[in-house]
Specification:
By secondary structure, the protein is mainly beta. It has one domain. It has a 14-stranded antiparallel sheet. It starts with 10 loop residues before the first helix and ends with a strand.
Length: about 270
């Protein structure tokens, strides 16, 4: 997701949070998501350029709004972990949303910084009365995505193995991949995301505009992202605004879902 030295962005944390909160709010409001169909271009993940640097040690904190109401917070942190990168994503419902359906999700995702291929995703979710732990591993030698899920209340568990291509990203760390790409007007990128099943996601650089958030005022480029196939298709569309400079700071995101929209605004950046 960029061509920057220190920025990073929350597009897929937003996407992941939207999928989670979208499911929960659909339950709370009694509305069911609808699917859409669109053509998907050939997808691939391109290795980062040699001078690419990840913003290790930085945390982006976002306030989330739903219909002008405070819906909670979302955070994403990236850290070097041996020869891998470790992305930590946290989604926490708040205000009116917690009254309807309380959500606390914690993601840990790992990927190879030289290829952007994901290696492991761990998710602990507390959603309403549900309490689950999910582990998703990627075995590229066998072309398998291996999912183990456990209901922490009942002890029920399931194991699934699905085919994957030679390199996939995941819904948590995938946004760092997008940020490594040139964000020039009109550019379109398509790549594969695995979340138990593989989806193709298209990201398109649509335009430029000025954006004001709690962290400041920025000239930005706007990127639209949506799944064009797979189990994420029809779950919503996400727009992300990056600062229009070498930093590509993830300033704002908006998700359009069947039941409404969520807005993510950068509140602050924390450094370790």
């Amino acid at each position: 997701m960029r061509i920057w030295s220190i920025g990073g962005w929350l597009l897929f944390v937003a996407m992941a949070t939207c999928v989670v909160w979208g499911r929960q709010l659909s339950v709370a409001t009694g509305q069911a998501p609808t699917a859409s169909v669109s053509a998907a271009p050939a997808a691939q993940i391109i290795p980062p350029p040699p001078d690419y640097h990840l913003p290790n040690g930085e945390t982006y904190v976002y306030g989330v709004e739903w219909h002008m109401f405070s819906a909670g917070t979302s955070k994403v942190t990236i850290l070097a972990d041996g020869n891998q990168e470790h992305v930590i994503g946290v989604g926490e419902s708040g205000g009116m949303i917690s009254a309807l359906y309380k959500v606390h999700d914690h993601f840990d995702a790992y990927f190879d910084p030289h290829t952007f291929c994901s290696t492991h995703v761990s998710k602990h979710s507390e959603e309403g009365s549900r309490l689950r732990q999910v582990e998703l591993r990627f075995d590229y030698a066998l072309h398998k995505g291996i999912l183990d899920e456990k209901n922490l209340k009942t002890g029920e568990s399931k194991h699934e193995e699905t085919e994957i291509p030679g390199c996939v990203t995941d819904v948590v760390s995938g946004f760092y991949y997008v940020a490594s790409l040139p964000l020039r007007l009109g550019n379109t990128y398509s790549f594969q995301v695995h979340d138990g099943k593989t989806s193709e996601v298209k990201a398109q650089v649509e335009g430029k505009e000025e954006v004001k958030v709690p962290w400041g005022k920025y000239q930005t480029v706007r990127v639209k992202a949506e799944a064009t196939s797979g189990n994420l298709q029809g779950k919503g569309t996400v727009w992300a605004w990056f600062s229009d400079d070498n930093q590509h700071l993830p300033v704002q995101m908006r998700s359009k879902l069947p039941w409404g929209s969520l807005m993510f605004k950068l509140q602050r950046i924390e450094k370790q």
